[in-house]
Amino acid sequence: MEKIACITGASSGIGWATAQALAKEGYNLILCGRRMERLEALQSELPTDSYLLAFDVSDSTAVKLAFAQLPAAWQQINVLINNAGNAHGMSPIQSGDEADWDAMMNSNVNGLLYVSQAIIPGMIARTSGHIINLSSIAGKQIYPNGNVYCASKAAVEALTQGMRLDLNPYRIKVSSIAPGAVNTEFSAVRFKGDLDRANAVYQGFSPLVAEDVAEVIRYMVMAPAHVNLADVLLLPTAQASAAMIKRD
Ligand code: 8X3
Fold first, then answer.
1. Ligand 1 atom with minimal separation from the 190 CA
2. Which is nearest to 158 in space by CA: 181, 133, 180, 182?
3. Which among 132, 129, 113 is positioned nearest to 59, based on CA atoms?
């Protein structure tokens, strides 16, 4: 039987690369993102079938509506990749921007919860499924000025463990992957389009690229049924910790 994976934040970066990696394994894909034209561009590249859902994960009504309207053929979701999320701003806690805080908590934490809540009941009914949450090294190690972003990813780590406990009776795998420095749109978004500042983050060493993360996610998804790569920390070789990177 054909398998279905649902990927949030599929319109760029790690989500986009993960869609390509899972499609190569034969997965049909539900691709979620805010930008329909980007989802259509991705769809046209994929060798398997896909269904597009354009919504903002932080809008709980939109999430509910999107999944309630899924055609029957797309309702049996085997794998959920909770990838949507971002960093907004990077400043000391005393000068943080409330809108940035809300944006991070709403997408990285609440959005993950809303999408999971829409998909988990089906997995429970079938007593099978796999949820992979995109955490970050920022969820394991707090760094200066990372405050709220780090808190949001620490919440992802806690929610992953909580989900694994609560969904254990239903044979649902729950995993997280925590990448270090990955050269995507991440820093451009964090620094609000300041590309000099964004590019400097990845200068002087070889950072991960989205395909590196996607390849590990592919491996996590394809592991045998009895194997769960529950907690994966993925770093560029040059990175020793959240705050220590060996640059040339
Ligand atoms: C992205 C990695 O180190 O910029 O989640 O927080 S870091």
1. 4
2. 133
3. 113
* Distance between CA atoms of residues 167 and 1, nearest Å: 24
Q: Read off the pTM.
A: 0.98
- Of the chain, the end-to-end C-alpha distance in Å amounts to 50
**Is 178 close to ligand 1, i.e. is its CB under 6 Å away?**
no
The phi, psi pair for 245, rounded to 5°, reads -130, 130
pLDDT of residue 171: 98
Q: pLDDT category, 2, cuts 50, 70, 90?
A: confident
Does domain 4-234 bear CATH number 3.40.630.10? no
The number of the ligand 1 atom at minimal distance from the alpha carbon of 150 is: 6
Closest C-alpha among 69, 3, 2 to residue 32: 69
How many angstroms does the Cα of residue 22 sit away from the middle of ligand 1? 24
Residue 32 confidence (pLDDT) above 80: yes
Candidate list 51, 114, 143, 149, residue with the active-site label: 149
Q: In angstroms, what is the span from residue 127 Cα to ligand 1's centroid? A: 34
